[in-house]
Amino acid sequence: MLTRRSVLAAAAASTLAAPARAQAAYPTKPVKIIVPYPAGQSTDILGRLMADQFTKALGQQVIVENRPGAGGTIGADVAAKAPPDGYTLLMTTISTHIIAPVIYPRLPYDAVKDFAPIANLGLTPQTLIASPKSGIASVKDLIEKAKGGDLNYGSSGNGSASHLAVALTLYAAGIRMTHVPFKGNAEAQMALQSGDIQLMSDAVPAIVTPILGNRVKAIGICDSKRSPYLPDVPTVAEQGYPSVLAVGSIGIAGPANTPAPILDRLAAEIDRMMAEPAVIAKLKELYFVPATERRGAYGTFIATEIERWRGVVKAADIKMD
Fold first, then answer.
1. Gap between the Cα atoms of 91 and 157, Å rounded
2. pLDDT digits (tens, 9 = 90+) for 277-314
3. Is 21 within a domain?
């Protein structure tokens, strides 16, 4: 005959075992990856690649849901407030998890506390590009022309990575230019090619083709090393300004408190898929440099970059004009 104590113990064990069984069986239904940008952009393409790979690895359909708006913060907020069960994931970017926390005092989510990092996937350094009509072919040229007269630079909007990369360069070089915000980098790049603006910055994946087609002139990579996709373009650091570092990243995370076994499994699957020849080829096709940070290391990367950019914005007195 079972005693009351043994019945309670059995019930408690059963209660504790249920979540463990659920995690071991994960996933038992479709998984959603929120992409906080429109379809067709680099983050979306990488997100769909991850969804296809996860579908094969997990044995359940993994779908992409585009939730664009407000520089990616709308989709990020939706993911932050989703149930922490592993069935809603987010494609994270420098905009959603590093720059937005620095420039928006009333951001509806905490980029560190409200998410469980899974993996950093790809790095996308910013690159300074000049109008072919400007006569600017180096950072030295830029400084000389900026001191000699009024120049304009464009970006995809106030507080974007393209805005802050140029602002950081101007601060480091001690020069001024007039900021002209556009609705997007594609529009800014058209103005650059026509000569309406003289300078802008964009991530490597977006500007390799225009550079190779001589439609714009690359004058500096905002990274500590040269891009493998633009090996002839020197870094801004090589040209005398080592503090100009603006490297974007795209990763994946879940809501905070997602069970660790689920996060660990997803991170392990990402390590496996990132070694797949088809995935390696796709990353090269997209001009991404693969990133290696997983779980806690990716969380540390995000927190460190937030503080670094907070210092940059404060020191350079960058205004969201």
1. 21
2. 989 998 898 899 999 999 999 999 999 999 999 988 88
3. no
Name the pairing type of β-strands 88-93 and 62-66. Answer: unpaired
| Residue in 92, 132, 298 with CA at minimum distance from that of residue 215 | 132
Task: Calculate ∠ Cα 130-133-135, nearest 5°.
Answer: 70
The pTM of the full predicted model, rounded to 2 decimals, is 0.83
**Residue ranges making up the domain that contains 130:** 125-246
**Helix, strand and coil percent figures for the chain, each rounded to 5:** 45, 20, 35
Note whether 178 and 283 are same-domain residues. Answer: no
Residue 247: its H or E element: strand 247-255
3-state secondary structure of 6: helix
Q: Is the CB of residue 137 less than 8 Å from the CB of residue 130?
A: yes
Q: How far apart are CA 236 and CA 76, in angstroms?
A: 32
Residues 46, 94, single domain; the answer is yes
Domain match, 39 and 61 both: yes
CB 224 within 8 Å of CB 245: yes
Rounded CA-CA distance 173/165 in Å is 12
Confidence at residue 145, expressed as pLDDT on a 0 to 100 scale: 94
Give residues with Cβ within 8 angstroms of 229, minimum separation 6: 204, 208, 287
pLDDT band at 11 (very low <50, low <70, confident <90, very high): low
Could you tell me if residue 10 is inside a domain?
A: no
Mind listing the pLDDT tens digit for each residue in 175-189?
A: 999 999 888 888 899
Report how far apart, in Å, the C-alpha atoms of 205 and of each of 35, 76, 201, 243 are: 18, 22, 12, 22
202 within some domain: yes
Query: Residue 179 is encoded by which pair of tokens?
Result: 């900021």
Both 145 and 242 in one domain: the answer is yes
132 Cα distance to chain centroid: 29
